[in-house]
Amino acid sequence: MIIKILGSGCKNCVALKENTEAALKETGIKAEVVKVQDMKDIVSYGVMQTPALVIDEKVMSFGKVLKSSDIIKILEKVK
Asked: Which H or E run includes 55?
């Protein structure tokens, strides 16, 4: 599983990455977490607001910082 955090590196993007890593640790799911900061790459996903959470090339959320509990619910649906 590859999880991408799309964003410019702002505090919300950092928070989403940290919450994602916490969710992975809590669930024991193995995944690679990648930060995507290039705006051209971000726009290619059709995302107009960051931060965004992309799992295996599917946009799962954008424009908000998900809590780790919310990310766990998403992970359980896609694993």
From this structure: strand 52-55
Mutual angle of helices 68-78 and 11-27, in 10-degree steps: 60
Helix (H) / strand (E) containing 70: helix 68-78
Quick check: 54 and 16 in contact, CB under 8 A? Answer: no
pTM of the model: 0.94
Contact 76, 63 (CB under 8 A): no
Per-residue model confidence as pLDDT tens for the chain (79 residues)? 999 999 998 999 999 999 999 999 999 999 999 999 999 999 999 998 999 999 999 999 999 999 999 999 999 999 7
